[in-house]
């Protein structure tokens, strides 16, 4: 059953990856670049500051730093633990895929981009939901686009993306809850 799931994953990857064209490659490389969304993060920090003030913002920044560190490190544990070759290194896949990214890496289960962007989306969306009700949906859509970019550029399978997004959503929720506990503990809420 696992082998069949992996085969479906490879087939879906090849289908989705080969939907791309050179016309769109640059756009997807920009989307997949982790530095592209620094302005978005700055806007989210500003909104947190505007709605909660400086001291709660400090709590949010510390918790978000811990969250991103956590998701990055757990992602690396899974990559080393499963040692699933990325599409660019997998026999039967690498010759059929469009490799758009300049660098691929060795192992790819699960996607750090997916887990980090989803964690940030869930965290910020929950933290700001009382002030901006639809923001979480915009952030979830943004996270899904970032996640798909990893398939487009040829470095992750769809299952890597789904697992990364799931882990990110759980992490974002748990770290949001941690931030709420800390804000109450220090009487900043």
Overview of the structural elements:
The chain has 189 residues and is mostly helical. Helix content is 70%, strand content 0%. It contains seven helices and no strands. The protein has helices spanning 2-17, 22-32, 38-52, 54-82, 112-127, 135-152, 158-185. InterPro entries: PAP2/HPO (IPR000326), PAP2/HPO_sf (IPR036938). Residues 60-176 form the Phosphatidic acid phosphatase type 2/haloperoxidase domain. It comes from Hyunsoonleella rubra.
Percent of sequence in beta strands: under 5%
Query: Kindly state the mean pLDDT as a whole number?
Result: 94
Terminal-residue CA separation? 49 Å
Instruction: Outline the biggest β-sheet.
Output: none
The oligomeric status of these chains comes to: single chain
- Class derived from helix and strand content: mainly alpha
Protein name: Phosphatase PAP2 family protein
Pfam families: PAP2
Keywords: Membrane, Transmembrane, Transmembrane helix
Domain Phosphatidic acid phosphatase type 2/haloperoxidase: 60-176
Features:
single chain, mainly alpha, Phosphatase PAP2 family protein, elongated, PAP2/HPO_sf, transmembrane
Quick description:
This is Phosphatase PAP2 family protein. The chain is mainly α and 189 residues long. The protein contains seven helices and no strands.
